[in-house]
């Protein structure tokens, strides 16, 4: 009997997970491990790439063991990953030249400003769909090449390889220094600021302007590729030759896993940050309200599907900040019970601009602030304001999406770790004024990667089969008075404006 399970490796900002699905989208096994967050100085965020590779091997073993599966039971592998996080390594040894620079990192602000001196912040937007911002990979590559001349020399000789974390994992899984495949897919490539949205290839003019050697960049392949990217090694963590044929950046994978296959369908993922994507079909829709134009996904030789995206840097990470930096909760799950000790936020707003503000503002000069403090405020109010900040930021993205698309969304599909927080989800519906719907499988990022790999090998023949697997687990209806909704949101907008210009360029 042929193998019927798909393994998804979900490498995120704070942890790595391996999930194994059957053809009915049921989770057979899952194993997850966190990795360190490294903060060398204010605004800098790094990961140890070798630690991430070690965690990947561990979670693969753990998932197979929990599912009581042999490697021969796995038909294919899909990869999904934190996007924009930038890594350069030696292809001869597999050693990173430097830690991975995480998407939240702001060290490239001066580089972005220098690039914007000619043509402004939207200098490349028409081609790549992105504003100049510290968020994206291109300026991070520039920083690494300037930081150490040895890295630039190695890149020019073709010895240094750039990749987001998907490329790093695929390279190791397929052999590493012994012939590993150096590739990425269009969703990850679209987050570098180096790929032309129309050609789905690296833009030679932008590479020249940023002085990035093309030979260090991975080959761009479809997100679901029947030709396969390569196979795992029998000496690797799967201990068998298993095809790797699905690759999607995490938010695009969630769009895929939520089966948002029709133009006009949208999802919002609540994780370390918050990311809303709207499928725009085969049309490249430019944003006039602070959103990003990006790839949705590309299946084999079919036309690419595009999306509008609103990216928020800090949501779940703010709960972690309460836990790790302030110590007012011991686990992230405790934030809801603490927030329920009060009836409201006590008039305070918490704007988590720890890495500046992403969509719809794109202000790298902003920094976090708590506004409206009085002696009445206690830890419960702070916890509640923390949750409300996520909902307010999502409202800003939804408003921008409605303006750009011209089609108001009537329902929001949600997923990610924070959707188990009932208080947050109800406030989200209240502040949006539309129903919020959660599927039976909330970890749609890993599911989307599994779907891409399964389509590539024919486990599922078409996306209509995937729609049949989607079902509602919970939904929240708006219950807040419209006048109160708009009053609260106006207060949020006022608080956000107060964070502008804190960092003087």
Total helical segments: 16
Measured between the Cα atoms of the first and last residue, the distance is 63 Å
Low-confidence parts lasting 5 or more residues at pLDDT below 50? none
Please tally the β strands and state the result: 23
How can the largest sheet be summarized?
Answer: 7 strands, mixed
| Spatial strand order of the main sheet | 17-18-16-15-21-22-23
Mean pLDDT: 92
Helix content: 25-40%
**In percent, how much strand structure appears in the residues?**
15-25%
State the shape.
globular
Structural class: alpha+beta
Q: Give me the Rg, rounded.
A: 22 Å
Main traits of this protein?
505 residues, alpha+beta, 7-stranded mixed β-sheet
Describe this structure in words.
Helix 4 (137-147) crosses helix 5 (149-156) and helix 12 packs across helix 13. By secondary structure, this protein is of the alpha+beta class. It has helices at residues 49-66, 109-116, 125-128, 137-147, 149-156, 165-173, 186-189, 204-210, 250-257, 316-326, 334-339, 379-405, 422-432, 444-457, 463-467, 482-497, and strands at residues 5-11, 15-21, 27-34, 46-47, 74-81, 87-90, 100-101, 160-163, 183-184, 195-196, 201-202, 219-220, 230-231, 243-249, 266-270, 274-281, 292-297, 305-312, 349-351, 369-371, 412-415, 436-439, 472-476.
């Amino acid at each position: 009997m042929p193998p019927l399970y798909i393994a998804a490796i979900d490498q995120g900002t704070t942890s790595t997970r391996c999930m194994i699905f059957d053809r009915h989208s049921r989770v057979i096994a899952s194993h997850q491990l966190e990795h360190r967050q490294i903060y060398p100085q204010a605004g800098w965020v790094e990961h140890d790439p070798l630690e991430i590779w070690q965690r990947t091997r561990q979670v693969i073993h753990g998932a197979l063991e929990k599912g009581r599966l042999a490697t021969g039971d796995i038909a294919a592998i899909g990869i999904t990953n934190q996007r924009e996080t930038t890594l350069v390594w030696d292809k001869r040894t597999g050693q990173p030249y430097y830690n991975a620079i995480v998407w939240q990192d702001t060290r490239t602000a001066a580089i972005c400003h220098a690039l914007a001196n000619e043509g402004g912040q939207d200098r490349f937007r028409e081609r790549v769909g992105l504003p100049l911002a510290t968020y994206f990979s291109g300026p991070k590559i520039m920083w690494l090449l300037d930081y150490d001349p040895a890295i630039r020399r190695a890149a020019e000789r073709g010895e240094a390889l750039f990749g987001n974390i998907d490329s790093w994992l695929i390279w190791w899984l397929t052999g590493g220094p012994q012939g590993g495949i150096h590739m990425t897919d269009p969703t990850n490539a679209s987050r570098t600021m180096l790929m032309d949205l129309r050609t789905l290839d690296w833009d030679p003019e932008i590479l020249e302007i940023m002085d990035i050697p093309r030979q260090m960049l991975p080959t761009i392949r479809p997100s679901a590729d029947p030709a396969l990217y390569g196979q795992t090694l029998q000496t690797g963590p799967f201990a068998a030759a298993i095809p790797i044929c699905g690759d999607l950046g995490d938010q695009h994978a969630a769009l895929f896993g939520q089966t948002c296959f029709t133009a006009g369908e949208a999802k919002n993922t609540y994780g370390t940050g918050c990311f809303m994507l709207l499928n725009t079909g085969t049309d490249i829709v430019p944003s006039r309200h602070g959103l990003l134009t990006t790839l949705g996904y590309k299946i084999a030789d079919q036309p690419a599907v595009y999306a509008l995206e609103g990216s928020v840097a800090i949501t779940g990470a703010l709960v972690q900040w309460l836990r790790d930096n302030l110590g007012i909760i011991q686990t992230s799950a405790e934030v809801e019970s603490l927030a329920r000790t009060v009836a409201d936020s006590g008039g305070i707003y918490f704007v988590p601009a720890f890495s500046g503000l992403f969509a719809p503002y794109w202000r790298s000069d902003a920094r976090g602030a708590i506004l409206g403090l009085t002696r009445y405020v206690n830890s419960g109010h702070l916890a509640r304001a923390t949750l409300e900040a996520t909902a307010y930021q999502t409202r800003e993205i939804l408003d921008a999406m409605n303006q750009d698309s011209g089609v108001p969304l009537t329902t929001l599909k949600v997923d990610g770790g924070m959707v188990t927080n009932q208080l947050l989800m109800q406030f989200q519906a209240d502040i949006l004024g539309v129903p919020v719907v959660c599927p039976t499988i909330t970890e749609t990022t890993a599911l989307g990667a599994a779907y891409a790999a399964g389509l590539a090998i024919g486990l599922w023949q078409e996306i209509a089969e995937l729609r049949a697997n989607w079902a509602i687990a919970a939904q929240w209806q708006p219950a807040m008075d419209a006048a109160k909704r708009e009053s609260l949101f106006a207060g949020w907008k006022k608080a956000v404006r107060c964070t502008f210009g804190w960092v003087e360029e």
